[in-house]
Amino acid sequence: MAPVLTCKSKTCKKDWTSGESTYGDFKAGLDLTVHPQLLDLLRADRAIYEQLKKHLSFEVAVGANHRYSSLTRLHLHTDHAKNLMLLAKFFRELVSLDAAEVNAHIAKLSELFEKH
């Protein structure tokens, strides 16, 4: 059975499997399996989001069934397919970049992003 990516509220007591939860299945965007270290990196470093949102509007959700799971999932959504592919590539490469490389990569991406 293929994994299904959904979003569940920590505070809502309704069961996500019944469809009664606050959030539901992701309807649009791209789901990726990524390196487990990405989960820790994105939880710890909000600056990555802050830098990216200066250049485009996007949604991201990251999760895993277990802290050390090899099935860390990333869901991305943005208005342009080109931007979605650029973001997917960026997040897949993110764990191998240092801080200076992240900043340079985002600057380069900002020139490639499709604008509204």
Describe this structure as you would to a colleague:
The chain is an alpha+beta fold. It has a single domain (28-112), classed as Ribosomal Protein S8, Chain: A, domain 1 (2-Layer Sandwich), CATH 3.30.1370.10. The chain is built from four helices and three strands. Strands 1-3-2 form a three-stranded antiparallel sheet, with helices on one face. The protein is globular and about 40 Å long. The mean pLDDT is 80.
Put the structure in a nutshell:
The protein has 116 residues and is an alpha+beta fold.
Q: Going across the biggest sheet, name each strand in turn.
A: 1-3-2
Low-confidence stretches: none
The helix-and-strand class reads alpha+beta
Tell me the distance between the termini. Answer: 38 Å
Main attributes?
3-stranded antiparallel sheet; 4 helices; 36% helix; alpha+beta; Ribosomal Protein S8, Chain: A, domain 1; 116 residues; globular
Architecture blueprint of SSEs:
Elements: E1 30-34, H1 37-44, H2 47-53, E2 58-63, E3 72-78, H3 81-93, H4 99-112
